[in-house]
Amino acid sequence: MRLAAEHVEWRVHGHRLLDDVSLTVASGETFGLVGPNGSGKTTLLRVLAGLRRPKVGRVLAAGRPMRAMKPHEIARAIAFVEQQADTLDRLEVRQAVALGRTPFLSPLRPWSARDDAIVTQALTDVDMLPLADRLWHTLSGGERQRVHIARALAQQPSALLLDEPTNHLDIRHQLSILRLVRQLPVTVVIALHDLDQAMDCDRIGIMDGGRLVAIGPPREVLTLDRLRRTFGVHADFLDDAVEGRQVLRFRHAL
Amino acid sequence: MMLAVAAAAPTRSARSARSAWHWCWLTPLLLFLAVMAGTAIGETSIPLDTILEVLANRLWGAEFPVDRIDAGIIWSYRLSRAILAACCGAGLALAGVVLQALLRNPLADPFLMGISAGASTGAVSVAILGLGAGSLTLSLGAFAGACLAFGLVVVLAHAAGSGTGGGRATQAAGAIILAGIAGSQLFNALTALIIAKSASAEQARGIMFWLMGNLSGVRWDDVALGLPAALAGLAICLWYRRALDAFTFGADSAASLGVPVRRVRGLLIAAMALVTAVMVSMVGAIGFVGLVIPHAMRFLVGSRHTRLVPASALAGAVFLIGSDILSRILVPGQVLPIGVVTALIGAPAFALILIRGARTR
């Protein structure tokens, strides 16, 4: 599904968190959002997910203005994995993932065997099926994050938005989640802190002070000059002989 | 009473459709037994067959010979009282379930929105200040006060919650809680002021009793109001059970799952406030039920509202009937305020469930 933002602005108490942001994410593309803390990545993801309705500018999902879509229509097309979402409820893993079926259910359209199958598939996709009966509060941070992603997958979305999903994960799960996300046949917009991981996206957008200052293939927009100006670090690209590509080596903060 | 429900509740692992079917006939049976117990037990015990005979006489025009005084006690006094106790227990427990789910706060209870404080102000305005010059009943005054307080809290929460940024839906929940606290404090102070300025010692004691909950003097008129309110509350909660589930990870997460958060939250809170106001205006502010029954039921049947909602309604109903029975027989010759009994019985029972729940983790 094509996802587009047109001249979006978002203000809080007169403070501009998003400033004239326009971007188009093509169907099936994996789009990375990078930028320093407070640059507006999370806010932009929320706007794209339909959780914020901007007064200035508009968001289009598959060409339709999101403002005209009902909440459950948006939720059937777009799933969003928040950076931190916790609960005190006594909840089993499978029940947490089953929440992803909410937009498809109504009092008149009850839970079915098909929903069960979708939930099981989502649990399998994130490697959490063996823990399906565990209680939420017994899970580690990484396991919780994988459950959130499974919940999003259970929405069977055409577009998946993820806000720094690898934050709490060990390196093995970081890599497996990123691989999973890239392989999904859906549009993905993913906010990332790790710039090396961002190098694997089809395209990336660099946020700085609420503006989208560069969009393009990672190697083209992540220039040493850009790293200095936006991220405030001095870095070099080194050759990775194994994969025949370049990796970032950060030297020091400026 | 609550522990009996606990023992019979299905375990976490047994979630077959069969156990759901069991509850379809167990629920009415439990309710019926509780109401029968509430009718039979009291200062004068009445045998069950007498009760059934009176019921048959009244409902189906059977003509069993029963003592007229017994018949009067059963039909006009105890049966209506037991049924209203069930309605109040169910209504308050449901309000607690909804508020705890929507506001993501384990301390939320039906009186969070200033309803009991407003009701007491309304009641003392009528009873002590003589507001309405005799045309208003205590119940009507309490209901008006409850609605007024709720309206004020909503306006305050709206003013405090608008214009905030990231995590807006989550911040709105915080604004509602704080507005509720402010509103409750204001109306409690007003009540205290009225009592201190104008009430005689006798009046003050009477109001005090009313505030802690009082089911005596319940008549069928009250049931005619309380039963529809409780049933409507139950229906609304069941209709929105999936939306309530979706709030598990907070309001923003619910929004991303396609729940129209503002509309659902506004509707559910207003409905539960209305149910609570109806109950409070009839029987006073019975504490503990709305706070603890939902927690107890979460331990026993889990957090999913498909089961939590009916379980809480049932447990609240049975619990309040049980508390009402105890309030009548605990001290011979005296009826204790039911709020005292709910807390005295409920607190240890809840402690047991907490400990048991901690072991199963």
From TrEMBL, chain A:
SUPFAM superfamilies (UniProt xref) = P-loop containing nucleoside triphosphate hydrolases
Keywords tagged on the record: ATP-binding, Nucleotide-binding, Translocase, Transport
Q: Which residues form the ABC transporter domain?
A: 3-234
Q: Has keyword Nucleotide-binding? A: yes
SMART domains xrefs? AAA
Keyword ATP-binding listed? The answer is yes
Pfam families this protein is in? ABC_tran
One of the record's GO molecular function terms: ATP binding
Please give the family membership noted in the entry.
Belongs to the ABC transporter superfamily.
Q: What is the purpose of this protein?
A: Part of the ABC transporter complex HmuTUV involved in hemin import. Responsible for energy coupling to the transport system.
User: Could you tell me what this protein is called?
Assistant: Iron complex transport system ATP-binding protein
From TrEMBL, chain B:
| Gene Ontology molecular-function annotations | transmembrane transporter activity
Q: Does the keyword Cell membrane apply?
A: yes
Q: Which SUPFAM superfamilies does the record match to this protein?
A: ABC transporter involved in vitamin B12 uptake, BtuC
Keyword rRNA processing: yes or no?
A: no
Ordered alphabetically, the record's keywords are: Cell membrane, Membrane, Transmembrane, Transmembrane helix, Transport
- Indicate what this protein is called per its UniProt record: Iron complex transport system permease protein
User: What Gene3D superfamilies does the record tag this protein with?
Assistant: ABC transporter involved in vitamin B12 uptake, BtuC
What is the source species? Halomonas stenophila
